[in-house]
Amino acid sequence: MSITILGIESSCDDTGAAVFRDGFILSNKIANQEVHKSFGGVVPELASRAHQQNIIPVVDRAIREAGIAKTDIDGVAFTRGPGLMGALLVGSSFAKSFALALKKPLIEVNHLQAHILSLFLRKPGDTKKKPEFPFLCLLVSGGHTQLVIVKDYLIMEIIGQTIDDASGEAFDKCAKVMGLPYPGGPLIDKYAASGNPDAFSFPKPQINGLDFSFSGVKTAFLYFLRDHLKNDANFIEENKYDICASIQHSIVDILVDKLISASKQTGIKEIAIAGGVSANTGLRNRILEESVHHKWEVHIPEFQFSTDNAAMISITGYYKYIQELFTDQSVTPFARYRP
């Protein structure tokens, strides 16, 4: 029996809708919000207002591009959390109303679990190899950094996570103190390609086990710029590429060192990365380099599926639909992470 899932994503500042059918993505549409650039970061109230404007056109485009009718949809999946509460309310309210009108099952999705399942996204005709269970996933995003053992599509175990800031937040905050426009993380990645990663060094946090910490790196970076700017007001502009390459190298080092430790402790050599920071070329290249030394089988999502998107919501909804893991109209979003 064919199963068609409509996925809706609204956890932050991107409004997404996608259609997934029988293992393949039929459409994946996203509306970005340019309004936040002038504020240097996402403004929650403005984000929720933009979602209200975007969600109906985005869903309409996703259904049209998929070449289906609304009545062909078997289930409606939506991001329940974590994320910005106002933004989540827009997506969940629309999903609840849409499912109710169609008399179709409603499926709640954990945004972080969906990032991991983005590794299984395929378009018709795509024969790219899928991860084999169990695999070890480094989940890196603007709000979360975790090491997860993925035992099955919906069975996952967190074995390490950040005790303070996320890696994506560290990238964005370092970019901000450099005066780079929002979003700054991708700009650091861009400029790092032309810089020397060994030009400057920053201290590594000494955290036991498999947990992460990035607050100390951010603080060290802030003091580093402050001290150099006292002597040279043009220090950042004159050394922009080397600064970006050096801070990226430091953050990637922290991530990869923990990933290597986790692989050794678990014995798992099936390795994956997911989440917005998995789009970082420095991280991708480093993990591919380490895979040769450690004999890893590495899986990395396509760039379009690394950042927030509805395709990952729809595929998660698909596997929950198969197990009849539905929710009802009383469901409410959650802003903070829930295991």
Task: Supply the key terms.
Nucleotidyltransferase, domain 5; 339 residues; 18% strand; 2 domains; five-stranded mixed sheet; 43% helix; single chain; alpha/beta
Task: Outline the structure in words.
The chain is of the alpha/beta class and 339 residues long. It folds into two domains: 135 residues, ATPase, nucleotide binding domain (Nucleotidyltransferase, domain 5); 166 residues, ATPase, nucleotide binding domain (Nucleotidyltransferase, domain 5, 2-Layer Sandwich). 43% of the residues lie in helices and 18% in strands. It has a five-stranded mixed sheet with strand order 3-2-1-4-5, sandwiched between helices. The chain has a five-stranded mixed sheet with strand order 8-7-6-9-10, sandwiched between helices. Helix 3 crosses helix 11 and helix 4 crosses helix 5.
Short description:
The protein is α/β, with parallel strands linked by helices.
